[in-house]
Amino acid sequence: MQRMGFVLGIKPVGIEEYRKLHAAVWPDVLAKIADCNIRNYSIFLRQPENLLFSCFEYHGSDFAADSARMAADPRTQEWWAINMPLQQPLQTRAEGEWWAAMDEIFHVD
């Protein structure tokens, strides 16, 4: 298992809609997340900076392949099409990233 963290901006005008959407995530999207070996998934909001922080446990062996499988899912694509206009990717993200990956520097159980 690998813990993973990502950060992304959110447009101030999109915060309430984003909250509403994530209070009732589509069952097909939740099933695909689980199918792609992601568990214990949370998204946090930091205001007034308007940052989203996501963290989860990845229980698979090939995150790139699972991520590509998730991205190819039509229902997930629909979900992203609704959510992405509300988001504001960081200018410092790596090439090809939407959510900017973070390095874990500490953990304790």
Any overview of this molecule?
The chain is an alpha+beta fold. It has a single domain (12-91), classed as Alpha-Beta Plaits (2-Layer Sandwich). The protein has helices at residues 15-23, 27-35, 63-72, 74-83; strands at residues 2-10, 38-46, 51-58, 87-88, 100-102. Strands 1, 2, 3, 4 and 5 form a five-stranded antiparallel beta sheet that branches. A hairpin with a 4-residue loop joins strand 2 and strand 3. The longest helix has 10 residues, at 63-72.
Q: State the order of secondary-structure elements, H for helix, E for strand.
A: EHHEEHHEE
What is the total domain count? 1
Question: What general outline do the C-alpha atoms trace?
Answer: globular
Q: Which residues form runs of ≥5 with pLDDT under 50?
A: none
Can you tell me the CATH topology? Alpha-Beta Plaits
Distance between the termini: 14 Å
> Helical segment tally?
4
* Rg: 14 Å
User: How would you classify the helix and strand content by structural class?
Assistant: alpha+beta
Main beta sheet strand tally, sense and closure: 5 strands, antiparallel
Going by CATH, the architecture would be 2-Layer Sandwich
If you average the pLDDT, what whole number results? 97
CATH class: Alpha Beta
This entry's quaternary arrangement is single chain
Beta-strand percent range: 25-35%
Query: Roughly what percent helix?
Result: 25-40%
Counting DSSP E segments of at least 2 residues, the number of strands comes to 5
